[in-house]
Amino acid sequence: MGWFSRKITDPEETFSQLISKDKKEAERAKQDFAKNMNSGFVEFLCEKFEQHEALEVRLIILEVFAAANNKLSEDDLREVLKLIKYPDTLLRETFKEILVGINEENLKAVTEVLANTMDTGIHRTIQYGIEKSGILAQLLEKWNKYTVKEQILFLDEIVRLQNPKTYPIFLDILKEETVEARKEEKKIIQVEFSKHVDKIKSPEFLDLCIRELPAIAPNMRYPVFKCLQMHGKVFFEKVFDGLGKKSEGFRQHTIKLMEQLSDAQSYPYLFPFLLDNYKSIPPVVRDTINTIVKSFCEEIDELTPEEIKKPEIQEKIRYFTGPLEEHLNDRFFHSIKLFTECLLRLGRFDQDVILRNFSKIYKYNESYLKSFLNGLETNERKKLLIDACCYENTDTGRTALKILADPTQNYIIETLNTLLLEHFMEVPSEIQAETINLMMDPRLQRFVTEVLYHQDPALRSRILWILGESGSQNALNILETKLRDPDYSVRENILKILDMDHFQNAAGTELLMNFLKDTDSSIVLQTIERLKDRDHPKIIGALTRLLSSNVAELKQAAHKAIAYITRRKYMIGFDKMTDETKYAIGTSLIKMDPNFMEDITRDLSASDQRTRVLSAKILEVLCDHIPVELKTHLIVAIQDPDPHVRAVVIMGLGKIGGPSVAGMLVAFLKDQDDRVRANAVEAMAEVGDISLADEILPCLHDDNNRVRANTIITLWKLGYYQIYDAIIEMLRHPDKWMRASAAFALGELQDSRFFGVLLQVIRDPEADVRRNVVRALAKLAPAYTLAPYIRPLRFDPDEGVRKEVMSVLTAKPPNAK
């Protein structure tokens, strides 16, 4: 402790007095420290400052330094200025009191701090001291008296001040000399200034330079930019703000300076100038962007994979990829190749960059992308392409498939094989389909066949489904190879595939019929159900073979299916069948399908008119087979608005009969439809009695020939015989159909007393009448009796009449009436 002043023998004791509550004692200790200040006490008090966090104590310590500010050497001040880092306002204000004691001997300690910090608060505090101390005025006075050579020697010292009042000097140096005689001297001092300008860290200098940038000599702009670069984003924002409105030469020079800097912080501001109208600017911008991205990628290359995954590194990657992706469009066509190459370069550190831009990269720079892929390691390339196929954006997957569509590349086959065998279920459904379509290429098809024997049934099913959806010519052939797949779910899946519209044809049906031989009854039953609604000449035969099955369920299902198909075809083709075919198939259906007649009669009340009419037509053919228990269905339909339906219902009720039917039919004797009235009269013959004659008699004068004829027959059958006049009236009627129907009715009566009546009209001028007369006579008398009367008609001009005559004459003798 020998280096301490004799007046302070114990610094610790004096420091205790300094911070004591006794103001007099504290003031005395402060004066003792100030009068005896030396390097030892400076170091001691600085240590105490760091040890005590209380603001009051720290202020007291700084006040001691302020009281001794004229005694601080360069080293002492350098030690004290270490404490200026604390931002408290009171501390900074006290520092100003310390700094007003700055002199030329300790000035260097101050300028060192200015050169090593960007803290504006520290800069303001120090600049206050520089100005209040008078050192600034002294230096400026010297500068103004110096020659150019002396200014060059003094330049470093004045630059280090970084005081705004020195900036006019710097700006004058930066500006281009207009006086020819001074140009050489100006260049010399500019060269010297460029060596020191980077020491100026003041934001005020930044603003000044940006504001006066056009006036700064071109040869000084780069040193200035290099200096201002330390301000980071703020500098580049100010440089580029409004740059597009400056002259072409200024823009070009500024962009070239940016190329020299190649600072990553300028990166996002460069892109708009890719569209600059001045043709020499965009190439420079492209080179700058490329250099910046390349430099960043070289830095990342030095990191480990774990370090690259850190959030801060990923954020930096996004900083570079963002503008590239934003501008990856036709508007930047001349720069698009650069963008794609940069994205691929950056994508090596974040694969998603490549994947989300895959389709655009392929669109704008296909050759480079393929070259990039060829340059990757085998596994890395395979992973990238497979991940692309599995990517959520289907455009990425489609692009990958375009690349994989070229089997000339060695890696394509292996990649597709791995994709199908290991990753296919991860691929979006749309891309799955397109993958299989791609594999239908004859050069690649064998890989699909191979993967269909993969151990995962879900994978096999999915691939088969896609094949089915594709409708490919080879799809059925491939499906056929899997009809005996050991897994039930796969075979069931094929059944569902065959339900697709493009397999509703003969080839699809033939393939479907193969499942009738499946070992699983459930598959066979599902197949039967599907075949019911298909049309193929072999379906009935295939189902018929199942009727001999040992499995009762299959036998029953096959029987029902045959009946269903027969019924379906019967109803679809009914109108095109002959009467004999209609009857034959209809009666067969009655035997095969117990519910057939019930369903048909129920359909008489269907909401669809076509269904009701078709049912009526079928029942008209099978009227004699309507069971009595279905009478209710007929009664429900008797009021149908369609006369065809009403007519058939009436006929059916007439066949079934019953006590209430006759009374029900009476109302239909006056129906507006001829057929309904005719059937109603005809049915009365089956269900009525003589008591209804008065209700029926008006029908003898009906306008319709069939109604009149049926009325004659019905009345005769009910025992009412006073019909002669009505018959004669019909036979003399001018309408040929009235006369023909009358002849028909007399034949149905089969009473020989009308023989003479018929002979009177055998020479009727109408062939239809003559033909019916011959038929009616055949029912009244044997051929040998008729022969003399009808033989002349063998030469009748009408062929139909001639045939009818020959039929009667050559018929076997019937029982005499």
Task: Output the keywords.
817 residues, mainly alpha, 50 helices, 67% helix
Give the amount of beta strand, in percent.
under 5%
* Oligomeric category: single chain
Percentage of residues in helical conformation: 55-70%
Indicate the structural class.
mainly alpha
Please, could you describe this protein's structure?
67% of the residues lie in helices and 0% in strands. The chain is mostly helical and 817 residues long. The chain is rod-shaped.
Write a compact overview of the structure shown.
The chain has 817 residues and is an all-alpha fold.
Task: Please describe the topology of this protein.
Layout: H1 11-18, H2 23-35, H3 39-51, H4 55-67, H5 74-80, H6 89-99, H7 107-115, H8 120-132, H9 135-145, H10 148-161, H11 167-174, H12 183-196, H13 203-211, H14 218-228, H15 233-240, H16 248-261, H17 267-270, H18 281-301, H19 305-308, H20 311-326, H21 336-347, H22 351-356, H23 358-375, H24 378-390, H25 394-404, H26 410-423, H27 429-439, H28 445-451, H29 457-470, H30 475-481, H31 488-497, H32 506-513, H33 521-531, H34 539-545, H35 552-572, H36 579-592, H37 596-602, H38 609-621, H39 631-637, H40 643-656, H41 661-666, H42 674-687, H43 693-696, H44 705-718, H45 724-731, H46 736-749, H47 755-760, H48 767-780, H49 783-790, H50 799-809
Helix pairs in contact: 1-2, 2-4, 3-4, 3-5, 4-6, 5-7, 6-8, 9-10, 10-12, 14-16, 16-18, 18-21, 20-21, 21-23, 23-25, 24-25, 24-26, 25-27, 27-29, 29-30, 29-31, 33-35, 35-36, 38-40, 39-40, 40-42, 42-44, 44-46, 45-46, 46-48, 48-50
